[in-house]
Amino acid sequence: MKKELFYENDFENAEDLSMDGDGEWWVEDSKLYIDDLTSELSGMTVWVRKEMPSDIFIEFNAMTVPPKNAGNINFFFAAKTLDGGFLPDAGFTGRYDQYHEESQLHILTFTGKNDGYKIPGWTRLRRDPGFNLISEDMSRSTEVSVPYKIEIQKLGENIKVWINGEKVHDVDSPNPLGGGCVGFRTWRTKLYFEDIKVYELLNED
Fold first, then answer.
1. Can you give the pLDDT at residue 187?
2. pLDDT band, very low/low/confident/very high, at 190 (cuts 50, 70, 90)
């Protein structure tokens, strides 16, 4: 299997990005900032407006920044509407439950500890529609101002995730989702993402 670069963004501009939700987002110093602490409504997604292939390897860096809150690093991939449409143009409100009911996608979540929100900290993989949990690791949580390198491989039924070089998910999802969009998501958190690369995975002849 070989990797061929399909998409990259160093966030020098916001040309191919769009948002669902009511918080704030911007690009600055080669980083994509998302601030979900500026709105009473919770949850927002910044989409890459490009459909990715089915078999992919994704890598990006992320860091939550002060003030400490939910510490939520969240990422959507293989995302489409239920009827296979282009999800960034579907006019979603940014509400989490709308994605669970009206889209097909995978969700990677990596959270911090927060007693007020009753969050012990975890990383989970889910699949929509239905918000179905397919893998979880309750042994780790995000920390403010700590950098994380996240890598995701989706190949056929199998999904693998590495955080700072350590494999934390390795799970099969039968009847796999195909190609679709990727989206940066958070909830009750200010954070940034940087240097995303998406590779298509191809069979070597």
1. 94
2. very high
Helix (H, G, I), strand (E, B) or coil at 100: helix
- 39 versus 146: the higher-pLDDT residue is 146
For the full predicted model, state whether its pTM sits above 0.90.
yes
Helix (H) or strand (E) holding 96: helix 96-102
Of 144, 143, 188, 184, the closest CA to residue 37 belongs to 188
| Joined tokens for residue 191 | 């954070």
pLDDT by residue (tens digit) across 12-22?
A: 999 999 999 99
CATH 3.40.50.1370 assigned to 2-202: no
Average pLDDT of span 25-32: 97
196 forms beta bridges with 9
Residue extents of the structural domains in the chain: 2-202
Query: Helix (H, G, I), strand (E, B), or coil: what is residue 99?
Result: helix
Contacts of 205 (CB under 8 A, 6+ apart): none
Q: Is 186 helix (H, G, I), strand (E, B) or coil?
A: strand
Q: What is the DSSP string of 145-176?
A: T--EEEEEEEETTEEEEEETTEEEEEEE-SS-
Query: Of 146, 150, 144, 141, nearest to 195 (Cα)?
Result: 150
Q: Which residues pair with 133 in a beta bridge?
A: 126
- Predicted confidence (pLDDT) at residue 119 exceeds the cutoff of 90: no
